[in-house]
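Reopening this one. Same input as before:
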Amino acid sequence: MRDTKESRLLLVLLVAIAFALITVDIRGGRNSPVDGARQAAAAVFGPVENGLSSAVDPVGNAVSAIRDSGGRHDRLAALEKENAALKAKLGSDDRNRSRLNQLQKTLKLAGEGQYGIKGAQVIAIGSAQGFSWTITIDVGADDGIKRDMTVLNGDGLVGRVTTVGPNTATVLLANDPDFTVGTRMEGSDELGFASGQGDRPLRVELLNGKAEVKKGDRLVTFGSQADKPFVPGVPVGVVSRVDPSNGGLTRTIYVTPYVSFTKLDIVGVVVQAPKKDPRDEVLPTKPKPVPTPTVTVTVTPSASAGPNSNADDQQQ
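Same output, byte for byte:
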């Protein structure tokens, strides 16, 4: 449309008419004379508006979903973090319960043997000091620990202290090949010397070559002079195999230790020996033997095996 005087006049006229219609519509309220025209326009342009709204709404919904997804992601991350913390707490509680049980067993054994102990936790394993089977515990000279002290746990003999630092100490385990401890057999009091063999049973040389010993017999520590490095009465293990007696001066047996040397955590260092030898008092209670069920078979003679069966057979 060209910009002429007539076009400008038409534009002014249309604007004036529009303002006039708006004024009449406002003053008329519900009875507005232009209400019919408005409804007709709505009938014509309503479907177009709805179509545009339908086309635009998915985009708006998608934008809202993207905006909300950030919040959902944050909530999910928070839940995952909370679950991880809960799992860690449960795991920590399980570990604490395990340590508490170990400590209680160790205190029970120490109480039965009247050993004065210093509780410790295993913080390292290895052969840094030149030994094959050693552990490092978190107590040392500042805690009253000295070289050649007996180390035990709730199951029995763990080893002996070999090196002491201010806050830590190294323990040579009883299954180390360089480890030797005097033993005494439960009941018979037969003496011997047990030596470590790594992950195999302890090898024990009994001083009496004709000693009567059998599988299942139990051994404790015999003790050392001045109770160093070993105090008496600490459970060592159970006889698992006996070599045949060959008439020699000694007899060899093999003993499965009570202690699992690959599962050490809480231990006790004996800082005060008992006033008297506890002998066999610290050994665990023997399991009761399981009775062997007996089966009684009763033979019932058949009906054809009566007293006249032979006579009947002869007549036939």
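So the earlier flakiness isn't reproducible anymore. For the record, The two ends are 142 Å apart (CA to CA).
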